[in-house]
Design goal:
The protein has 196 residues and is an alpha+beta fold. Helices cover 25% and strands 22% of the residues. The mean pLDDT is 79.
């Protein structure tokens, strides 16, 4: 028969101790992995998404560029101002960012209003009507001026700021007032965000 080799019993792991039977262990222990901190549990896509949301919020709430005070080259526009197609005034409002003065079409610099011709959804149409009506009300508060160097956009509209001098000699920007009231957005060119 040969030499007998003594059998060594394996040391019992904590899993096979009699006290462990029937006890539920935390998943981090039975999977053999350490617990993760709350920051490690955040999905990898959540932080970039949060960054994009904050970036978008900053874009939407940023104030438009400083508007120029009226000077010798500024054109004065006197009320009355109506909605285009609803009156005989020479100055009328097409939508929240476009007005007509006689045959000229003026686009307000630095803002983007919801479309009315045609709107992409009912919500955009409602917002567009609010912006248009508010621009009519602002324009009828007194004379205002077209300021800034005349440029044209891709549709041939002239680009100007619409400003008014207040009694305290500060400059009121009609476009900035619409942004503050949440009826239009700041816009500096490029693709536009949807309103629907």
């Amino acid at each position: 028969m040969g030499d007998l080799i003594p059998f060594r019993r394996k040391k019992r792991s904590k899993w096979t101790q009699p006290d462990d039977y029937g006890r539920v262990l935390p998943t981090s222990t039975w999977q053999g992995r350490p617990r993760r901190s709350p920051w490690q549990r955040i999905r990898p896509w959540l932080l970039p998404l949060l960054f994009l949301v904050l970036l978008g919020w900053n874009y939407l709430t940023a104030q438009p560029d400083e508007t120029l005070a009226p000077d010798a080259t500024s054109q004065r526009i006197d009320p009355p101002v109506t909605v285009c197609g609803q009156g005989r005034a020479t100055t009328c409002v097409v939508d929240g960012d476009t007005i007509k003065i006689g045959e000229r079409t003026i686009r307000i610099l630095g803002i983007d209003a919801p479309e009315l011709h045609p709107p992409r959804c009912l919500a955009e149409a409602q917002k567009g009507l609010q912006a248009r009506d508010r621009l009519v009300a602002l324009a009828n508060q007194g004379p205002f001026y077209l300021t800034g160097a005349s440029q044209r956009d891709e549709y041939g509209r002239e680009l100007f700021n619409l400003v008014r001098l207040r009694p305290d000699k500060t400059v009121q920007s009609l476009g900035n007032d619409l942004v503050i009231e949440g009826l239009v957005r700041n816009y500096s060119g490029g693709s536009r965000l949807p309103w629907c």
